[in-house]
Design goal:
8-stranded antiparallel β-sheet; 10 strands; 22% helix
Amino acid sequence: MYRKCKINKRLTSFYNLHFPYTARGKSRHRYETVVGIGGNVGDVRRRFEHLLVVLQKDKRVSVVKTSLILKNPPFGYTDQDDFFNSILVLKTSMQPRVFLRYLLGLEKKFGRKRTFENAPRTLDLDIIFFDNRTIHTQDLIVPHPFYTQRESVMIPLSGVGR
């Protein structure tokens, strides 16, 4: 069951037992990463819950925190349904590019199809921060280059203490 809170005409936040969430105990993993999650196809909030279960069962990552879920209008390609977005703080021992491939595999597992830029999607996973590193390669830029320009990141991010 979600508790809903209207922020303004365009934005709504949702809360439940797992969003926001803070884990107890310490992780044995080396690196802390902040991942933006989003989607607007199907039952996205239920998919977020399922993603959380998958992550909690995977020994390669530890879930440290989650943020509230934010419902917000799309940007870029705007002729589509609103998005749900949240933030995950994870610990991992994977290196950044390996972690990126891991996230891309999760997107695929959850039905993501890449048809065009900013297209509707079942699940989008973006590395916002990776252990306070700056990375600039062809396939990975960290910190995420547009995170400060997106309410869909900044509002949930404010709730995880980053």
